[in-house]
Write a structure and sequence with these properties.
Elements lengths: L1 H4 L8 H5 L12 H11 L5 H11 L6 E2 L11 E3 L9 E3 L6 H23 L9 H26 L2 H37 L6 H16 L26 H20 L1 H12 L7 H8 L7 H25 L3
Parallel strand pairs: 1-3
Antiparallel strand pairs: 2-3
Helix pairs in contact: 3-5, 3-6, 4-5, 5-6, 6-7, 6-9, 7-8, 7-9, 7-12, 9-10, 9-12, 10-11
Length: about 325
């Protein structure tokens, strides 16, 4: 698909993977518009959730620092204050882009997870695990994307559909495929070290090159320095952190689908059994009680099916509008 859209001959390279497939489409949203859109998109989660969401997104309530400022750090982050009578704090650098809208929904997912957990559990169980944290945020993003796609389809806005479909494709590629490659790399070099072997740059470069070949397949051409990419990933210092991005998105997509298809009952199950659970049970049990069982292949199969369907829809729409260029 990338070769077709980007008019490429031959094998893909790293730069090809990161060049945008859709250019020149840059919708802008004021922060007030973003608040409205996010509240509409997350309406399937119910009145209790949306009420807290609106409260948290309103800058007047002190939860969120919205805009860039002199001396302010970049990025976005939610700091959950796990106390019943205190709200979370959300760092943001809102820039009116579609990505900033998605980031707002993502960080508010973390913030509300903290609120529900701290208000429902005793202090000793109020801190949820990293494994569960990325589920609450990615479920929000998935519901928001579904909402925006439905509107773009209703309006017949093909460019907006392509932008959103590309956003979903890149999210799955970079979060499920790429982070799983990272996790595989991390596991293998730990096993290598635990067997009494030294971790040299040559060994790590060679291992990473082998994994790139395995994960990207014969249609990918290695660049001279591609095997050094592992050096830029700080998460390897955190010991088995990266796999939670892949499991988080897989589970978030599955929960969003359940909520969209089954309505209030599925939303209530998710909020009561996961968002309010903190660390009161093992993470896999909490997730299973919310409706997703990662000890079966079903969630990852569903994520891969969603990826394939999104590729097909993007291909159809792009060919329909731009294929004869």
């Amino acid at each position: 698909l990338r070769r077709k859209v980007m008019h490429l001959d031959g094998a893909l390279t790293f730069p090809n993977l990161y060049n945008a497939m859709i250019e020149g489409i840059e919708p802008e949203y004021s922060y007030d518009e973003a608040r409205r859109i996010i509240a509409e998109g997350l309406a399937p989660l119910g009145k209790e959730y949306v009420g807290l969401l609106r409260e948290g997104m309103d800058p007047a309530n002190g939860w969120i620092d919205v805009y860039p400022n002199k001396g302010k750090r970049s990025g976005a982050y939610s700091n959950g204050v796990l106390a019943r009578d205190l709200h979370p704090y959300v760092l943001h650098n809102y820039d009116n882009s579609l990505d900033a809208v998605s980031t707002t929904a993502h960080e508010m997912g973390h913030a509300l997870h903290s609120v529900f957990s701290s208000r429902s559990q005793p202090a000793v169980y109020s801190r949820y695990t990293t494994f569960l944290a990325e589920i609450a945020s990615t479920c929000n993003e998935a519901l928001l994307t579904d909402h925006l796609l439905a509107k773009a389809r209703k309006d017949g806005d093909v460019d907006m559909q392509l932008l959103l479909l590309n956003q979903r494709l890149e999210s799955i590629r970079q979060t499920i495929f790429r982070q799983t490659l990272f996790a595989d790399f991390e596991l293998r070099f730990h096993e290598h070290a635990e067997a009494g072997n030294p971790l040299t740059a040559d060994y790590l470069n060679g291992l990473y090159a082998d994994l790139i070949a395995e994960y990207y397949g014969p249609d990918f051409e290695m660049g001279a320095d591609d095997q050094c990419e592992w050096m830029f990933i700080p998460h390897f210092y955190y010991d088995f952190y990266v796999f939670t991005y892949a499991t988080g998105l897989t589970s978030g997509l599955a929960l969003a689908d359940r909520i969209s298809e089954q309505g209030d009952a599925a939303a209530r199950q998710y909020i009561d059994n996961m968002l309010k659970a903190g660390s009161s049970a093992p993470p896999l049990d909490i997730l299973r009680n919310a409706g997703v069982d990662l000890e079966t292949p079903a969630p990852i199969v569903a994520a891969m099916d969603a990826f394939a369907e999104t590729v097909a829809e993007f291909d159809r729409l792009w060919t329909q509008k731009y294929g004869k260029m």
